Amino acid sequence: MDTNDKAPFLVDPSAFLGDFLAIGVPSEESVLKGREGHIDLSPITVGPNCIIKNFVTLSEGASLAANVVVEDYCRIGPNARIGPRTRLIYGAYICDDVTIGADCRVAGFVCDDVTIEDSCTVMGQLVHPYNQPQRGWWDVDEPAPSIRHHSVVAFSSTVIGGVTIGPYAYVTAGTIVTKDVPSWHVAVGCNRLIPWHEWAGRPLRDLFAHWASLDRGVGT
d(Cα 18, Cα 116) in Å, to the nearest integer? Predict the structure, then answer.
């Protein structure tokens, strides 16, 4: 692989680009294929009015829709798709083939193949179970978490494996989740699931009331 090869970089003129950016970083797969000769890297797209701050890594195939904000020291992996008006918060690590919808706020670690739908807040870790360490790195295709729309994964929580966080669900800070969280539920501790109307804390009840106003009849 020619070490000077870079992925095509398609940036809207209205986008802001900070300093010390690594743009067009090839995927590991491309590096391995490139040892046999020149390859074409997937293009990177940055949409209108995006703000990409300092020390950000943009890998080949990444696509940012309009009005995305990427804060300092974020990493966006190969073929990641970031929806409009989403913010990636300081140091967010987005792995390969991740899809993030519109109007999201995402920090922490997001493993390969995760889907995060619109209007989500993800401050915790979304990880594979990694229960076959005896096999080769590329020999295992593990299921990834799926985060449905209008849900929250709070700070220092961990969602493990091919589980779904349902629409209008809330995973509290420090929680460990290894099974599906139904919509309109609060997850606490380790897989303890509480229907929202049984939750006594006022701030979350106010949030669920707000969500109910967006999707009348579902959470009531």
Answer: 26
The C-alpha atoms of residue 169 and residue 29 are separated, in whole angstroms, by 36
Q: 75 has which bridge partners? A: 57, 93
The Cα 148–Cα 152 span in angstroms is: 9
Task: Give the global pTM.
Answer: 0.92
DSSP state of 136: -
| Nearest C-alpha neighbor of 129 from the set 115, 112, 117, 116 | 112
- Residue at 139: amino acid letter: D
Q: pLDDT for 38-84, tens place per residue?
A: 778 899 999 999 999 999 999 999 999 999 999 999 999 999 999 99
CA distance 41 to 25: 9
Q: Is 168 left (phi over 0), alpha (psi -120 to 50) or beta?
A: left
Distances (CA, A) of 30 to 35, 59, 122, 136, 215: 9, 11, 29, 18, 44
Residue in 84, 88, 59, 66 with CA at minimum distance from that of residue 12: 66
CA distance 163 to 45: 30
CA angle (92 as vertex; 27, 94 as ends), nearest 5: 30
Helix ranges (H only) for the chain are 28-34, 202-214
Tens digit of pLDDT for each residue in 157-209? 999 999 999 999 999 999 999 999 999 999 999 999 999 989 988 889 899 99
- Residue 204 has phi, psi (to 5 degrees) of -70, -35
* 74: Cβ contacts below 8 Å, ≥ 6 apart: 56, 57, 88, 89, 90, 91, 92, 93, 94
